[in-house]
């Protein structure tokens, strides 16, 4: 049912295949030998040199294991997979944490339109409601990252408020900056969110301006690279405020995907390639929150809420996320 990555597949895709296979398996595990066997079946020609073939198989498994280890370190204790004690199989945890469900949600979203592994007939069905659930994940993760309030400002807003009313409400809470009292003469009557999906900040102890402050865009589709909050944030502050916030905003982008840097084909260490890849994204889109970071900081957000923060929105959508993940997991296992 799941297409097997070939020898040219990025290690991210190979690791995703292993995770998806572990979920779909009846015993919640997939052996690394299964990867080798499945890959061998897709090869058109037998490798003439057995030593070269063995080396290529070792490389495939080693890179997949390195990527899985990197994910486990990045996500932390909420990562819903582990390599068994013998190092021979990837196991799907029997009890998934709340943040672990967010990781799985992002994993499934990543393959909604990517046909490299999941064929179209078995792919997740993603609607606008599904994409809105990813905004819920991103909002809680933003609150976890800044350790403070996080508002789901993207349209449609949870409370249904119109743009200017919602703007005034947020910045009264924020305590830095003053939006215009009424819409400017040429402003669109149908402005939705001005490209701003999340507004988050860390509360200052003295209640004075100058806080950690985040303006974020959320993108769950593969066209995310056509979006950037950087220019939208500049217009947002310049146009909609009679006095802009003194706090300097951190631009951010939230996506459900894994990291897939282009591999140069030389001896450059993968860590160096990965570092350079993320730097490039940060320069263009602001601070990147990809699958691992969304899950990690979602867990942080839940802990901030438990500690008493009342203004991290969308955490009550978690049961919908869990239900969606459970339903698709069953569908994946039955395919």
Molecular structure report:
The chain has 335 residues and is of the alpha+beta class. It has two domains: 11-95, no CATH class; 128-318, no CATH class. 47% of the residues lie in helices and 11% in strands. It is built from ten helices and ten strands. The protein has helices spanning 11-24, 32-42, 50-75, 98-110, 128-146, 163-174, 229-240, 270-285, 291-306, 318-334, and strands at 29-31, 81-83, 89-92, 150-152, 178-179, 198-201, 213-218, 241-243, 249-254, 287-289. The strands form three sheets. It has a five-stranded mixed β-sheet. A three-stranded antiparallel β-sheet has the order 1-3-2. The chain has a two-stranded antiparallel ribbon with strand order 5-8. The longest helix has 26 residues, at 50-75. It is elongated, with a radius of gyration of 22 Å.
Q: Please indicate the count of domains.
A: 2
Tally the helices.
Answer: 10
Gyration radius over CA? 22 Å
Give a count of the beta strands, DSSP E runs of length 2 or more. 10
Overview in brief:
The protein is of the alpha+beta class and 335 residues long.
Any descriptors?
335 residues, five-stranded mixed sheet, three-stranded antiparallel sheet
How are the SSEs ordered, and which strands pair?
Elements: H1 11-24, E1 29-31, H2 32-42, H3 50-75, E2 81-83, E3 89-92, H4 98-110, H5 128-146, E4 150-152, H6 163-174, E5 178-179, E6 198-201, E7 213-218, H7 229-240, E8 241-243, E9 249-254, H8 270-285, E10 287-289, H9 291-306, H10 318-334
Parallel strand pairs: 7-9, 9-10
Antiparallel strand pairs: 1-3, 2-3, 4-6, 5-8, 6-7
Helix pairs in contact: 1-3, 4-9, 4-10, 5-9, 5-10
